[in-house]
Amino acid sequence: MRGGVLRGLILIFGTILILLSFFQPVVGWILFLNLLDLSLRFLIYSLLPFSKFSLLRFGVLLLAYSKVFSLFSHPHFHLVESILGIAGVGVCVVNLILFLSDDLNKRLLDVATKDSLTGLMNRYSFLTQAQKLLKQLEAKNQPVAVVFIDLNRFKMVNDEHGHKVGDKVLEVIGKRLKNAVKTSDLVGRLGGDEFGIFVQNADRDQAKQIVDRVLQLILQPIVIDGQVFNISACAGVAIFPEDGKTLEELIEKADREMYRVKSLLTSEICTSQSE
C-alpha cells in the first residue's frame, strides 16, 4: 500500500512537472521555478511519515504555504510569507534536534546496556534487569531458572586463530543464544566466553530442556573465513527458590554446577576443534 501511494505521488509530481515545462515559455523562468519549488515542497510533505515526522511535516507545510504567498506581489502577502518561512524553518530545526537527540539517546543506551561484540546484554545490564525481574516474580511466587554457560577451551581458538576470528565466533554464538530464548527472558554476556540466561516461570525440567536446546545450537558448526569451528559448552542451572533466594546465590550455584558438569566431561568432548 505504501509503495502504491509513493508511485501515485511521483506520478502526480511528474505530471505537474510536465505541465509546468509545457507552460514555461508562457509564464517565464522565474514563475516556472517558483511553481516547481512549490510542487516539490508539497511532495516532500506528502512523503514524510506522519507518525515519526509529524513536526517536520508541519514545518514543511508552513514552508510550502510561505511559497504560495510569495507568488503574490501584495506587501501584506510578503509579510505572511516571511512569517511562515521563519516559522517553518524553526519547526524543521526543532524536529531535527529532537530526532538527533533521540537517536543519540538510543546509541548511548545501547553502549551502556549492550555488549558491543555479541549484541547481547552486557554484564551490568543483565544483572540489573534480572534483579528487578526476580523481585517481581518472587512477589508472584513464580519459579525462575538461572543458567550459567561457559564455552569449552575457547582460549584455543584465540591462541591458534587470533582474536579477530575468536570475536566472530562469539558474535555467531551470541546470535544463537538470543534466538534460543523467548523475548521475555534475558540473555547476556557475563565475561569473555561466559553467558547467562534468566528464564521466567521455569522449573528444573523446563530449564533442562532449554539448556539442551542452547547447547545443541552452540555445537552446530561455525564457518569463519572458510574454517569450520565446532564449539562445545557446559552449562549449570539454579532454580529459584530451591537453590537460592537472591540473584547472587543463584548465579553462584549455577556457576558451581557448570564446573561440576565440566569436570565430568572427557577432554575430547570439551575441546573446540577446527577443521
Q: In angstroms, what separates the terminal alpha carbons?
A: 49 Å
* Major pleated sheet: 4 strands, antiparallel
Low-confidence stretches: 266-275
Class based on secondary structure composition and strand pairing: alpha+beta
Strand content: 5-15%
Counted beta strands: 7
CATH class of the largest domain: Alpha Beta
The portion of residues assigned to helices is 55-70%
Topology as H/E string? HHHHHEHHEEHEEEHHE
Mean pLDDT: 78
Give me the Rg, rounded.
30 Å
Number of domains: 2
The DSSP helix count reads 10
CATH level-4 homologous superfamily of the largest domain = Reverse transcriptase/Diguanylate cyclase domain
CATH architecture of the largest domain: 2-Layer Sandwich
The coarse overall form would be: elongated
What's the CATH topology name of the largest domain? Alpha-Beta Plaits
Written account of the structure:
With 275 residues, this protein is an alpha+beta fold. It is built from ten helices and seven strands. It folds into two domains: 2-112, no CATH class; 123-274, Alpha-Beta Plaits (2-Layer Sandwich). β2 (186-189) and β3 (194-200) form a beta hairpin. α3 packs antiparallel against α4 (75-113) and α6 packs antiparallel against α7 (163-180). The radius of gyration is 30 Å and the shape is elongated. The chain crosses the membrane at residues 5-23, 79-100.
